[in-house]
């Protein structure tokens, strides 16, 4: 298995041909959302121009075709994260909706006054706020695993936080702001030992790492399709079958019912019990094209390529005076956050954009993490399968020029 042919690969992503401010686009904001390859765009167009119909209820041909395509994505997601059965895959609009689904169903069912939920310092707001809302409602307690200066979890402190009161550990697999890969398998085993359930936020891991929910033994795993080269408005929750079967419903409406009577209604079987209303049919259908694209390209080859870019970018940035990298975990994916002495990230972002270079600046929806580092935000470059060494060099050169202007 050779390396990635990025020139060939880039031809599959039409947006990469465009110019920004008269310069070729250098897209380094992949942790926010990835660009979409032609098969994903084609899948959207084919659905809307060929077989647009509502799913599950129709007996006509278009409805049957749309239903079959929609359900094929479920099988692909099942394979992609290696769940035991397709009924464990619930479609959502993304990770945020997935975490809220678990908070409002499992959370309402299991969390009582005095119970404890553990998150980490490096969580995205979407894996903090739903638990805060739940804790407030139930008089439960939110506890936070501290991290070190490299942006790694302090595992001994985690073990001290685990008690017989711990009901849930909600943990990001890979930090969007730092790139840290957390030892979730170990965390899950330790949490299970005290009887706590574990939700893994796979928003950043699904695209970079091989995911095996059975091997991890997590109770829930959520991710967003748009960060895995798929459409916005697509995502999934994996939940263990026994949990999904016994949890109360989330949204009420069509699709999620067996029978509706004014006296009492009954719920549909899994997975439809949690899929009320008309979903993002086209986006879910096209998600299959995205996951197939990643699998066919080869996750291991993609990872090797991205890691090379990360290593190159890290050493290039370390040589620029005034640049300080935030997040130096031993295990990282291709996310590079940094601050520059006397320079505001936003100013840096604007100057880089003037050179066609797209990076993200700000708190990355991780304000408590920024507080820990004592900074308002960072500038973040995040690399995907289609990025090149030349683009990393463009970033470093652009950064040097911008710093000369700003510092
Ligand atoms: N968790 C993490 C770690 C993320 O990076 C993101 C997206 N930035 C989310 C959750 C939320 O994902 P979405 O906005 O797609 O629902």
UniProtKB/TrEMBL annotation:
Leading EC class: transferase
Catalysed transformations (reactions): (sulfur carrier)-H + L-cysteine = (sulfur carrier)-SH + L-alanine
Entry EC number(s): 2.8.1.7
Entries under CDD domains matching the protein: SufS_like
Keyword entries, A-Z: Pyridoxal phosphate, Transferase
One Pfam family matching this protein: Aminotran_5
InterPro entries per UniProt: Aminotrans_V_dom (IPR000192), Aminotrans_V_PyrdxlP_BS (IPR020578), Cys_dSase_SufS (IPR010970), Cysteine_dSase (IPR016454), PyrdxlP-dep_Trfase (IPR015424), PyrdxlP-dep_Trfase_major (IPR015421), PyrdxlP-dep_Trfase_small (IPR015422)
Coiled-coil segments on the chain, per record: none
Membrane-spanning residues: none
Residue stretches making up the Aminotransferase class V domain: 26-395
Job of this protein: Catalyzes the removal of elemental sulfur and selenium atoms from L-cysteine, L-cystine, L-selenocysteine, and L-selenocystine to produce L-alanine.
PANTHER family in the record: CYSTEINE DESULFURASE, CYSTEINE DESULFURASE 1, CHLOROPLASTIC
Family from the record: Belongs to the class-V pyridoxal-phosphate-dependent aminotransferase family. Csd subfamily.
Protein name (database record): Cysteine desulfurase
Originating organism: Flavihumibacter stibioxidans
